[in-house]
Each structure stands twice: as structure tokens, then as C-alpha cells.
Automatic annotation (TrEMBL):
Residues of the signal peptide: none
PANTHER family associated with the record: CYSTEINE SULFINIC ACID DECARBOXYLASE (PTHR45677:SF8), GLUTAMATE DECARBOXYLASE-RELATED (PTHR45677)
Keyword Lyase: yes
GO BP annotations, alphabetical order: carboxylic acid metabolic process
Highest taxon in the source lineage: Bacteria
Modified residues (N6-(pyridoxal phosphate)lysine): 294
Source taxonomy: Bacteria, Bacillati, Actinomycetota, Actinomycetes, Kitasatosporales
InterPro entries xrefs: PyrdxlP-dep_de-COase, PyrdxlP-dep_Trfase, PyrdxlP-dep_Trfase_major, PyrdxlP-dep_Trfase_small
GO cellular component, one term: cytoplasm
Protein name: Amino acid decarboxylase
Family, as annotated: Belongs to the group II decarboxylase family.
Cofactor: pyridoxal 5'-phosphate
């Protein structure tokens, strides 16, 4: 039986052998898939996966090499691969190879970040990296701090938790959250989980949270409402828009409210000297959510919550005698437990540290600039396309909304149904992964749009041009068939595949 462990010097040999199997299986799976996602739709994908991997709990094992070949190959064959430029629906990035390689080391060493005796060096690395990221967000603060989280959802949850505890400590009524209709759903869910009053949701015509509307909401709440946390977004999930942070910070300050900024998407603009000014006002926030598994090219998970002063994290302090006994701490063992709401915790910081060191701030900044520039060029290609129409606003950070003009000639509900069907058709054919978003059209009507979220650090607008022809072609086919009741792809269409970005080094 194969029971080699991964760590230590011997582990490295076992791991090297198995890693070679994994890399072969990844390549084979990608070749069989031949595009950004598997063709055939959910039923066919499920059938192939089950056929390849059954039984998932065999009575007797098949051994490590066979298991890896089978499982990795099946998952790779059935993957939506963001390394393909035509996989551009979500804030779902292609991880950098350096980050994925570092993550292998994290898995092999398996430090757990909840006590010093499980992560002696990894804990120091986390401290150094979080300090650097906190200083990036809060360059003028004397003692900013940051936590590593599992992503924007956990960061927003902890931000609201800390706000709730500040209100409690002050003996004030429960904190009221004021956010835009454009805020990420995790903000409302966090309020629900924390048993806070439902957030006051401010309408966002044009996709951004308007300072005047927030001012009205704060005035309506009045001083008797107790503490208020205004939640703004820097990079909305649907449109990539940045709320006017300096104005929102001023309005909040005038009403004695605190500001939290959800910069899960936009935070990494700070790496670029040219783009960082788009986040002016960010450091007025008491806390900032910041993801590195979006514009940061980390394998999931890599979230950050930055706070302006390290004391703000005090409510997370916790004693568990087996992890951070008082006498251990007095003897000099650092206490890590209060740096997360989790206990056992992956060393996600390892891949982040390797990436920061490999690319440097300017290297990461250049990748962010590339994505922003590519979105502008892609928007221009949409504008030039006779069969497509772009959303009237400016493109967001690296998000472009568009729809087939064929959808405009139908009544609104049918037009939206056509847009949705075009997206599903491309998915079923395995040819492209584009997202969907509801956003206001000129004149204020809310319509359904196709969404391209461009996070590929090397794909160019040229690589994406074919995606537009494909979309227009799909729209033509859907319109011809009638928007309702069209399902699936024809085999001939599924045979046409997308380009892959050539790798800089040879195989
Ligand atoms: C992605 C996103 C989140 C959620 O982050 P996860 O990392 O998916 O948990 C929160 N807010 C915004 C603005 C996002 O784009």
C-alpha cells in the first residue's frame, strides 16, 4: 500500500514522482477538453466524471499513481479553465505557476496557522506579508494590520463582526449597516449571520453608490440610530465599478459613521502607480476587504482583511489552553489564534509571499495594468462589432458588459431570454465561458448583459476578438431558432475550438 508522506527529505522524492503523474494528467485532461470548458453541458460532464471515477470509495485501493492519473485527468478534462482566454465569466483568475508551485510546498509542509508549534516560520512569514499588505492599503497609518482570510466573504464577515463588537464595547445599540444595492451579497449575508439589523440598501443608479443617496439614508437613520457602518465597493462584481470613495468617506465622517470598503476586486490596483489613484480615499476606511485570488492570480483561497489600526482586531482574541496558554505566551510563544475566526488554517500566505517576491510590486502592477488595458481594447472591439452592443457606461476595472443587438429588437423579456440562451449555448458547446449581469441600459431600463471579466495576465484583445464573432454567431442561431426552448449544441459547432495563449517558454 502506498503510504508515503509528503514532507521531510524522503517525502520530496515520493512527491516528485507523483507530481510528474499529476502534471501528465493535467496536460492530458486539457488536451481532451480542447477548449475553455467541457462540451455537452452538465449532464454529459457528470456522466463522464462518474464513469471515470466510480467507485469513489472502492473496497480496495488502486494505488497513488493510478488514482492521481484517473482523478486528476477527469477533473482536468471537465474543468472550466481560466488559463484559456475565452474563460472570462467571473472573478476567477488563472493562477500564476509560481503561486501554484508554492501551494504545493504549503500542502507538503502543512503548517497550520493557529499555533506557533504548528507553524513557527510560516507564522512569521504571515506576519511580514500581512504587515506589507496593510502598509500598502494604509500608507499613512502608524499601526495598520491585516488578516489572511478565505476570501471576500470571510473578510466582509469579519469586518462586520469587528464593527458589531466596537458598538457593543461602547454600550451602543447594534451597528446599522448602510450599503449600496451594488454591494456584494456577502455583506447582507454577514449582517444576517451576525444577527445585525438588515442593512439599509441604497439604490445605485448607474451602478455606483452615490454620496447624496448615502447622505439621505444617514439623515433618515438620524443620530439616535447609534453606530453606522457604511459599506462601499471598489470594483463591483457585476460591472467592476468603483464607488466614489473620497466623497463617501466625507459623508460618513460628517455623520459620525465608519466606512468599510469591499475592494475584493479592485484592491490590487494599489500595486500599480498609475492605477492606485483610482482608489484614493481607500485609507479613510476603518477596514478594507482585498482578494488576491482575483486580480492577484493566486489559487483559491487568498483573501485579506486590512484594518487601519491593529487594536481594531482585539475582539478576535481568544484563549484555548492547548493552543495559546498564558504561560506559553509569557515564555515567548507567539499567540496566533486571534488572527482568524478559523482554528486549523492553511498557510495561504506562502503562495502569496512567493508571488510578491517573484514579481515585486511593479511586476504585479504591470499585470493589473495589462488587464485594465485589455478591457479597454476589448470594449473598443465590441463597439466596432456590427452585431453586438456594449453597455453604455464606461467599462469597469476589467469588466465589459455587452449584448447581441438581436436582443434589442425583441420585447424586453424575450431580449433578455435571448441573452441568457446565448450564454448557455456557448457553455453547452464548451466554446466560451462568459458571465451574465443585470445592469441599467441608457434610459434606466434594467437589462440582462453578457459579461466578460478579463483577468488573464497575458491574453490580449486579439486573443479575445474571436469570442465576439462566436457570440454573434450564437445569437444568430438562437434568434433563428426562437429564444425559447433552444437547448444544447450541435456537434459540428462544438468542434470549433478556441486559441490558447502561447507560453513564453517552450514545453
Ligand atoms: C468576489 C467578491 C466578494 C466575495 O469574495 P470571495 O473571495 O468570493 O469570498 C466580495 N465582494 C466583492 C466585491 C467581490 O467581487
Amino acid at each position: 500500500m502506498d503510504v508515503a508522506v509528503a514532507g521531510d527529505t524522503h517525502g520530496a522524492y515520493a512527491l516528485g514522482k507523483l507530481t510528474a503523474v499529476v502534471l501528465d494528467a493535467l496536460a492530458e485532461g486539457a488536451t481532451v477538453r480542447g477548449g475553455p470548458l467541457p462540451g455537452g453541458g452538465p449532464g454529459a460532464v457528470a456522466e463522464r466524471l462518474r464513469a471515470a471515477c466510480a467507485p469513489v470509495l472502492p473496497e480496495h485501493g488502486t494505488g497513488a499513481e493510478e488514482a492521481l492519473r484517473t482523478v486528476v485527468r477527469a477533473v482536468a478534462e471537465g474543468a472550466a479553465d481560466p488559463a484559456d482566454p475565452w474563460c472570462a465569466a467571473h472573478l476567477h483568475c488563472p493562477p500564476l505557476a509560481v503561486a501554484a508551485a508554492a501551494d504545493l510546498a504549503a500542502a507538503a509542509l502543512n503548517p497550520s496557522m493557529d499555533s506557533w508549534d504548528q507553524a513557527p516560520a510560516a507564522a512569521v512569514l504571515e506576519q511580514e506579508v500581512t504587515a506589507a499588505l496593510a502598509a500598502l492599503v494604509y500608507p499613512r497609518e502608524a499601526s495598520p494590520d491585516a488578516l489572511i482570510t478565505s476570501g471576500g466573504t470571510e473578510s466582509n464577515l469579519v469586518a462586520l463582526l469587528l464593527a458589531r463588537e466596537r458598538a457593543r464595547a461602547a454600550g451602543a445599540p447594534a451597528v446599522r449597516v448602510v450599503c449600496g444595492a451594488n454591494a456584494h451579497h456577502s455583506v447582507r449575508r454577514a449582517a444576517w449571520m451576525l444577527d445585525l439589523p438588515a442593512p439599509v440598501t441604497v439604490e445605485c443608479p448607474g451602478g455606483r453608490l452615490g454620496p447624496a443617496a448615502v447622505e439621505r439614508a444617514l439623515t433618515e437613520l438620524g443620530p439616535g440610530a447609534g453606530p453606522v457602518l457604511v459599506v462601499a465597493t471598489a470594483g463591483t462584481t457585476d460591472e467592476g465599478l468603483i464607488d466614489p470613495l473620497p466623497e463617501l468617506a466625507r459623508v460618513a465622517a460628517r455623520h459620525g459613521a465608519e466606512l468599510h470598503v469591499d475592494a475584493a476586486y479592485g484592491g490590487p490596483l494599489l500595486f500599480s502607480d498609475r492605477l492606485a489613484p483610482l482608489l484614493d480615499g481607500l485609507d479613510s476606511a476603518v477596514s478594507v476587504t482585498f482578494d488576491l485570488h482575483k486580480l492577484g492570480w493566486q489559487p483559491v483561497a487568498a483573501g485579506v482583511l486590512a484594518v487601519s489600526r491593529t487594536e481594531l482586531l482585539a475582539p478576535l482574541a481568544l484563549r484555548a489552553d492547548y493552543l495559546n496558554a498564558d504561560d506559553d505566551e509569557e515564555a515567548g510563544l507567539p499567540d496566533l489564534l486571534g488572527r482568524s475566526i478559523r482554528t486549523t488554517r492553511r498557510p495561504d500566505v506562502l503562495k502569496v509571499a512567493a508571488t510578491l517576491r517573484a514579481l515585486g510590486r511593479t511586476g504585479l502592477g504591470a499585470l493589473v495594468e495589462h488587464c485594465v488595458a485589455t478591457a479597454r481594447e476589448f470594449a473598443a472591439l465590441v463597439d466596432a462589432h456590427p452585431a453586438l452592443r456594449r453597455h453604455p457606461g464606461e467599462p469597469g476595472i476589467s469588466t465589459v458588459l455587452f449584448r447581441p443587438v438581436a436582443a434589442d429588437s425583441a420585447p424586453p423579456a424575450e431580449g433578455d431570454a435571448l441573452v441568457a440562451e446565448v450564454r448557455r449555448r456557448l457553455l453547452a458547446e464548451g466554446r466560451a465561458v462568459v458571465g451574465r449581469a443585470v445592469a441599467e441600459d441608457a434610459g434606466g431600463t434594467r437589462r440582462l448583459w453578457l459579461k466578460a471579466t478579463l483577468l488573464h495576465p497575458r491574453a490580449t484583445a486579439d486573443d479575445l476578438a474571436g469570442l465576439l464573432g462566436l457570440t454573434a454567431e450564437a445569437a444568430g442561431a438562437v434568434a433563428a431558432a426562437g429564444a425559447a426552448g433552444v437547448a444544447g449544441a450541435s456537434g459540428a459547432e462544438a468542434a470549433a475550438r478556441t486559441p490558447h495563449v502561447p507560453e513564453p517558454e517552450g514545453p
